[in-house]
Specification:
Blueprint lengths: L5 H16 L8 H12 L5 H13 L4 E9 L5 E10 L5 H12 L6 H12 L4 H6 L17
Antiparallel strand pairs: 1-2
Helix pairs in contact: 1-2, 1-3, 4-5
Length: 149
């Protein structure tokens, strides 16, 4: 196996951070992404490299949103700053919850498959959603024992 250099992994780690920590209600600035990368992966990256990797992800057609803010520099000129980055999700939290409930109340899905499906559905969102569904437990094991479902 080969060892990938941290610079080559920068864009991948930034995407993982966006998937794990962001959504429409939870955004991150470039500085927060930089700090999270240092904390989670023990790798440093300057702010310009973070912005470059984020724009590269957008060029690669990842559905990443941000807001533009204008600030005045020391020279008195207006400068546009990109901030509040987040990854748009395929499913909203309400849709994921509906799918999880559907799996839980299905009479035809065995209990062990039900648990696996719920874990896969939870993985479609971020850490904030996982905290909302920790209380979910399976129904009694009265479901069929057909593993070929």
């Amino acid at each position: 196996m080969y060892d990938a250099q941290p610079k080559k992994m920068a864009i991948f780690y930034i995407l993982k951070i966006l998937k794990k920590y962001t959504d429409g209600d939870h955004t991150l600035t470039q500085k927060q992404i930089q700090d999270r990368r240092k904390k989670d992966y023990d790798m440093t990256l300057d702010r310009k490299a973070v912005k470059r990797n984020l724009t590269d992800l957008i060029d690669l057609e990842y559905d990443i949103s941000y807001s533009e803010k204008t600030r005045i520099t020391k020279d008195g000129e207006d400068e546009t700053v990109l901030t509040d980055w987040y990854l748009n999700r395929d499913f909203t939290d309400a849709e994921l919850r509906l799918l999880i409930d559907s799996v839980l109340f299905s009479k035809y899905i065995p209990c062990n498959q039900c648990k696996k499906l719920i874990e896969k559905l939870e993985a479609q969102s971020n850490d904030y959603f996982s905290a909302k569904v920790r209380h979910i437990c399976n129904l009694p094991v009265s479901s069929p024992a057909n593993p070929e479902l």
